[in-house]
């Protein structure tokens, strides 16, 4: 066989990462999702809001934060369909991940629902600047989460 005809050598192996995140200081976010609320933190010292919620202000490092409710209004910045999924999402159908700018100016990443993740529909229906709504989801099993849906 010549060099051009050789089959490439492909090495693959699973890489599993397990993150254990303490959520006690951000528990109000998760509890809020269960009640249909979309919350974040605002620093009492400097006024900075952060998303996702933070236990400490990333600007002035104060631990004095308060919980504020966000409007659930957003604008799409970008989105992509995930065809090759990480192991932890292998059971999921192809899905769309979006980056959106919330009405309050914060950016958030989440799944975009309500649009089929096929190339024709993606080109036709997903446009930067399109209006989105945040919807909270409380599954029968597992943790609550939020998704974006077209407004």
Write the layout of secondary structure elements.
Elements: H1 27-34, E1 39-43, E2 49-50, E3 65-69, E4 73-82, E5 95-102, E6 107-112, H2 119-125, E7 131-137, E8 145-150
Parallel strand pairs: 6-8
Antiparallel strand pairs: 1-2, 1-3, 4-5, 4-7, 5-6, 7-8
In a few lines, what is going on in this structure?
With 151 residues, the protein is mostly beta strands. It has helices at residues 27-34, 119-125, and strands at residues 39-43, 49-50, 65-69, 73-82, 95-102, 107-112, 131-137, 145-150.
Give an account of the 3D structure:
- The protein has 151 residues and is mainly β.
- The protein folds into two domains: 20-69, no CATH class; 71-151, OB fold (Dihydrolipoamide Acetyltransferase, E2P), CATH 2.40.50.
- 10% of the residues lie in helices and 32% in strands.
- It has helices spanning 27-34, 119-125, and strands at 39-43, 49-50, 65-69, 73-82, 95-102, 107-112, 131-137, 145-150.
- It has a five-stranded mixed barrel with strand order 4-5-6-8-7.
- The chain is globular, with a radius of gyration of 20 Å.
- The termini are far apart.
- The model has no long low-confidence stretch (mean pLDDT 90).
Strand/helix succession: HEEEEEEHEE
Instruction: Write down the Rg.
Output: 20 Å
Helix content: under 10%
Largest sheet: 5 strands, mixed, barrel
By DSSP (H or I, 4+ residues per run), the number of helices equals: 2
Mean pLDDT over the full residue set:
90
Spatial strand arrangement across the major sheet: 4-5-6-8-7
Give the helix/strand class. mainly beta
Just name the CATH architecture of the largest domain: Beta Barrel
Query: Based on CA inertia axes, which overall geometry fits?
Result: globular
CATH fold call of the largest domain: OB fold (Dihydrolipoamide Acetyltransferase, E2P)
The residue ranges in which pLDDT falls below 50 over 5 or more consecutive positions are none
Number of domains: 2
Q: State which percent range the strand residues make up.
A: 25-35%
The end-to-end span amounts to: 57 Å
Number of DSSP-assigned strands = 8
CATH class designation of the largest domain: Mainly Beta
């Amino acid at each position: 066989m010549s060099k051009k005809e050789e089959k490439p050598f492909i090495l693959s192996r699973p890489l599993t990462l397990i993150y254990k995140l303490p959520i006690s200081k951000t528990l109000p976010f998760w509890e809020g999702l269960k009640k249909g609320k979309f919350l974040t933190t605002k620093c009492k010292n400097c006024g900075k809001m952060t998303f996702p919620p933070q236990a400490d202000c990333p600007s002035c490092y104060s631990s004095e934060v308060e919980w504020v409710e966000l409007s659930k209004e957003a604008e799409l910045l970008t989105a992509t369909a995930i065809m090759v999924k990480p192991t932890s999402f292998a059971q999921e159908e192809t899905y769309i991940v979006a980056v959106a700018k919330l009405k309050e100016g914060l950016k958030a990443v989440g799944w975009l629902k309500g649009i089929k993740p096929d190339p024709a529909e993606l080109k036709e229906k997903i446009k930067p600047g399109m209006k989105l709504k945040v919807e909270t989801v409380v599954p029968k099993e597992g943790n609550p989460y939020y998704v974006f849906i077209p407004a």
